[in-house]
Amino acid sequence: MNLPTFVQHQYTFADVRRNGIKLENILTILNVEDEVQKFAFYLHSASMAAAVRLLSDESILVTYNLYCQKDDVITILVRGINEPSPNTSRSPSHQNSLRE
User: Fold this and answer.
1) With a threshold of 0.85, does the pTM exceed it?
2) How many whole angstroms separate alpha carbon 57 and alpha carbon 99?
3) Separation of alpha carbons 94 and 56, rounded Å
4) Residue 21 · residue 12 · CB < 8 Å
5) Residue among 54, 80, 81, 55 at smallest CA distance from 68
6) Where are the domains of the chain?
7) What pLDDT shows up at residue 100?
8) What is the pLDDT of residue 3?
9) What is the pLDDT of residue 9?
10) Rg (CA), the chain
11) DSSP sequence for 42-91
12) Which residue of 20, 68, 90, 93 has the lowest C-beta tally within 10 Å?
């Protein structure tokens, strides 16, 4: 939210199978050298009405199993801990953010 641009990286299902996925790994994929506690992580896919906040490594798998198993693309959004949720009216919509 504080940046005028965003960065998007691809992490395939094969990558997940090979390396796993944890909140710390997400920062590594984004080349961010900082503490996990300074960020808020959200997961969103086409079958979800709103992004779900990921509070722990385990929440990634739980959320995936509940909502995303049939989706081709799953997006994990990373924001500063004090920045608004992607679901708030103060934030650009998820679709507009992706389009930009």
Assistant:
1) no
2) 28
3) 22
4) no
5) 54
6) 13-99
7) 44
8) 59
9) 83
10) 13
11) EEEETT-SS-EEE-SHHHHHHHIIIIITT-S-EEEEEEETTSPPTTSTTS
12) 90
Residue 33 DSSP label: -
Of residues 76, 47, 40, 45, the one with CA closest to residue 60? 76
Query: How would residue 20 be classed by pLDDT, with cut points 50, 70 and 90?
Result: confident
31 is written with which tokens? Answer: 């080349």
- Residues 98 and 100: their CA atoms lie apart, in Å, by 5
* Residue type present at position 84: P
Only one residue has tokens 């199978």, namely 17
Please compute the mean of the pLDDT values over residues 14-30 and round it to a whole number. 90
Q: How far apart are CA 11 and CA 8, in angstroms?
A: 10
26 residue type, one letter: I
Report the C-alpha gap between 51 and 78 in whole angstroms: 11
Q: Which residues, in sequence order, are CB contacts of 57 under 8 Å at separation 6+?
A: 21, 22, 23, 24
